[in-house]
What we know:
Strand content: under 5%
Helix content: 55-70%
Distance between the termini: 34 Å
Order of helices and strands: HHHH
Number of strands: 0
Structural class: mainly alpha
Amino acid sequence: MSFELHLPLWAILYCGLIFANGIVTVIISNNKNITYILSQLLSSAFMISFFFIYYGAVKGANEKTVYVLMITFILFQEIWVNQSLYKRIIVEQIPQNERSVVISALGITMAIFLSPLIYIIFSLF
């Protein structure tokens, strides 16, 4: 029995961060019903599955419709369902002269963190 590693180490670590993000989101959320927990974990699983499909670790359906449905669910979960979590970023407590720097740093950090996922998704299309 042999084990072959299909994903590069950085992708495995990145997928671990995505999974950890899903768990932390469930923990800090005020919504603790089973539907929310399962949909948040499913959203994380969809994000991770893009990496497995891209690197050929999983022979997924090469249907663009499936990819679009997965992306739609991820965006719905992360933007609409998790909108109550945006209030956790309290900008009002930051001094006025530092707000633009903090918001810019947050945007740059999110762009850097999401860039591998966005690249993989665009490459699958």
